[in-house]
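Researcher: Here's the sequence for the chain we discussed earlier.
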Amino acid sequence: MMKFGDYLRQAREARHWTQPEAAARAGIEQSYLSKLEAGKSYPSDDVFERLVQAYDIDVKALVRHLDPAEAKALRDIQSLRTARLILHRAVQTMSRGWMLAGLACLLIGGASAGAALTASDTSHEEYIYLSRGVIAPGEAFDVFDRVDASPGENPEAAAALRAQQIALQDRIDEEVRIQRTLQGEGYFETVEGGRRYFRALDSQTVIERSPLRWFWVPGLMFLFGALGCFTISWRWK
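Model: Thanks. This is the structure I predict for it:
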């Protein structure tokens, strides 16, 4: 912020004019210009317009830089009053714009945070079934259980079981199925070369996180954005 006289002096010096030269360009007395620059006098409407033309003064820029006390002293100059009014309206419009943007961010951020706060997780049971291999036609559904069977004391039966175990081990092709519905102790499925028996192995509870929980991220972003908009709106004034 500066005084009107200082603004005139700086504008003159920026153009490398002497006071007599500047006064001649504005059509006023050099002594009067000296008083204006010293802050001992203020221009009339007519003199101000001459200075604006001579110095090519941007009135709006002048209003922005004027000290409030100086602006009050120059309140009778029409062009300055008009410029102040235009700037005031522009500032009010910009301030209201930032205020409305802040309110919009506040509403969106509040709604997002509320959605995240009220979000609830869901859960469901999953049932794990295991098939150890393809059961050939005519074989028992638990034929692959013989792989883990212990041989008896009868040497011939033990040898036959061992041979069968070796053959079954070559056919082992485990496949795991996870079902959301309980299929009992087990179920069959027809496949190429025979069928598979899927035996119930285990169950587990699966918790599904609600996607609404991610609304915390945009919620906080919009809330901080609202704070920023309100701050800018306040500072803009």
